[in-house]
User: Fold this.
Amino acid sequence: MTRSILSGWGGTSPSASDIVRPTDLATLRSALTTPGPRGVIARGLGRSYGDPAQNAGGSVLDLTGWDAILDVDVHAPTVRVQAGISLDRLLRAMLPLGLWLPVVPGTRQVTVGGAIAADVHGKNHHVHGSFGRHVVSMDLLLPSGDVVSLTPEGDDPDLFWATCGGMGLTGIVLATTIRLQPVETSSFVVDTERTPDLATLLERLASGDDAYTYSVAWFDTSTRGPSLGRSVITRGRSARVEDLDPSRRSHPLDFAAPQRGRVPFILPTSAVNRLSARAFNALWYAKAPRHRTGEVQDITQFFHPLDVVGDWNRLYGPRGFCQYQFVVPDAEVAAFTSAVEAIAASGHVSSLNVLKRFGPASPAPLSFPMPGWTLAVDLPVRPGLDALLDHLDALVVEAGGRVYLAKDSRTSPATLRRMYPRLDEFLTVRRRVDPHGVLRSDLSRRLDL
Amino acid sequence: MINALGAPQHLLLLGGTSDIALAIAREYARVSPALRVTLAARPGARRDAAVASLTAAGCTAVALDFDALDTAAHGTLLDGVTVDIDVAVVAFGLLGDPEQAWTEVEAARELAAVNYVGAVTTGVALGARVRAQGHGVIVALSSVAGERPRRSNFVYGSTKAGMDAFYTGLGEALREHGGRVLVVRPGFVHSRMTEGLDAAPLATTPEAVAQAVVEAVRDGKEQIWVPGTMRAVMSGLRHLPRSVFRRLPV
Ligand SMILES: Cc1cc2nc3c(=O)[nH]c(=O)nc-3n(C[C@H](O)[C@H](O)[C@H](O)COP(=O)(O)OP(=O)(O)OC[C@H]3O[C@@H](n4cnc5c(N)ncnc54)[C@H](O)[C@@H]3O)c2cc1C
Ligand SMILES: NC(=O)c1ccc[n+]([C@@H]2O[C@H](COP(=O)([O-])OP(=O)(O)OC[C@H]3O[C@@H](n4cnc5c(N)ncnc54)[C@H](OP(=O)(O)O)[C@@H]3O)[C@@H](O)[C@H]2O)c1
Assistant:
């Protein structure tokens, strides 16, 4: 056990926790049944932006070594894994079998446990929903020390769904069986188009997404006026063998994912400033083709352009940054537009902006996605950011929307309650399985969960 | 917890009636809508008024009995404070009569006991709390008077130099425990402490100190001067030969 300073991917609010790296069930069980006064929380690869995977003064169970692939059923197809395995490693193991994960977020460097706890979504949310929908079963270690096997239809569906999106506050996911998807290749057939403004973008996504499995837009929040919201839409589907270049057809499932550069440990000041962010926005738009169809791209090009720069979060310097991701219902285009305008007018410039239209919500009470518009922006911590984000919170609440807990680092208990109307359902389950509040994190303290 | 943008949920004021401490609480009340404030101070009308004023500002304000001279009680001072302390402000202090302070034993002892000994013993209690919590920011109100002792108030200056050094070191010690210390060196501040005195150059207000503190905590700073220009001034003064320094009207 070592005491270490932990923070989320945004690098804000560091705190000290005792890190335990369990390799057997007995260690895990005793961490939960004989907790210290400040409790225990699980941590995966720490890709949440804020404070859910750290526990100031308490224990953190680092599950990244708990990562075996236990069983593959290529016919179902399903895979059973220990929850600390990364999606990257799982994908590399499944692709040669012609199998693909049902949900892949914007980085592969997340664990299956983290994917369940945040009920993550990918570019295919409008078709396939969030991660929890593809969980066939999971084994959950409770604060009592018992291990329960949960399914969506089983004896305790409330606990199953509270665990999906429950940010680790219902138990430790030990192992899980997930449904996979058959694929012929590791590539994607991608259509790219640029849209000149926000209204066109929303219209194109609303009318065209149904024709694609994957859809996302990169979005410029720094240009005001008529070009506000100019964007690059990329949409695609899994490629079939005949889509590939003939030279690649003999090995269609190959997966090459380079990691090109790493960023030196904490630059002294933020390398991302307003100018560089503006330039990045402009470049991203300019380098995209006005319209191109049927291009074959590999996984990294299509899903994870950022994974090529390891540790890019350090570009933001020691103060870190806030990622703000919100969703508002389909009909709230006006609120969505106001939010984009408020960001563009604020002088806070985000270099990474991802926009997507979500499909149906999951049954999980704390799951983030709902049918509607979601936007994620990356904002370096600068004076006035609190006022901007409080203003956005108010717009989002007013529109019946919410922010994403996997990204949040600064909202308040009162605002959370207004954003998640089913919060009490979650808390009822949490109190049932964890009456003494053993499972605790900086996020649970900050948000009174 | 303190959030990513430096807004705490619970603030502790040691010296809960200090003008500067209360200005800091009011400044935090603007960024933290449901702020809880614990005012550690000697009981009395001033403390009651401070609780009432913070309650009126929308805070949940709670009083805690505290006397800087009662060092025996400092080890258990925070035992009754069960909520995590996100930001603690060490604000108690005495200016005293500068001539008595170097000529009368009792006056000198009191300044040293409150400003230095009390600051150290409460600092030990705060440090223990931060280590247990694994997080927390301590804001220590030092003074430019401690940076270079002057003839006019060197006893006060010496106590501030001592507490400044203690809290600077405490900041180093708490780093690996998730804690942070911000040492604040204001110049002349118009407050109850300086009432009736002639203002020094670059005089400032409790509100300005409060704003600077809230920003510095948010930005993760470890040392600030208020006003900010004081930093350069002091850096210049520190290097003046004593023969020149003693003739300055400061
Ligand atoms: C570049 C980037 C892009 C991203 N893109 C997306 C995206 O497109 N869509 C999306 O939905 N998210 C996205 N995310 C967020 C990320 O998917 C989630 O934060 C995810 O939870 C991170 O997983 P992790 O393993 O790093 O978990 P951590 O960040 O370590 O932990 C997250 C939560 O999971 C809990 N947890 C971890 N393991 C377990 C376990 N075994 N049992 C119980 N609880 C557990 C922790 O307690 C914590 O509450 C992105 C993040 C980054 C950095
Ligand atoms: N004002 C300036 O020019 C200036 C400049 C630099 C630094 N500072 C420092 O800033 C801090 C706050 O000062 P301020 O300007 O806000 O002055 P202030 O309003 O006079 O505050 C001083 C505080 O110290 C408290 N105190 C004194 N003796 C105490 C004791 N034995 N036990 C408990 N509390 C005691 C007082 O409490 P009671 O109400 O019980 O007396 C009062 O709350 C001080 O440390 C001061 O040295 C001030």
Notes: The interface with chain B takes residues 3, 5, 10, 12-17, 38, 50-51, 55-58, 318-320, 322, 381, 383, 385-386, 389, 409-414, 442, 445-446 of chain A (CB under 8 Å). The first strand of chain A starts at residue 2 and ends at 6.
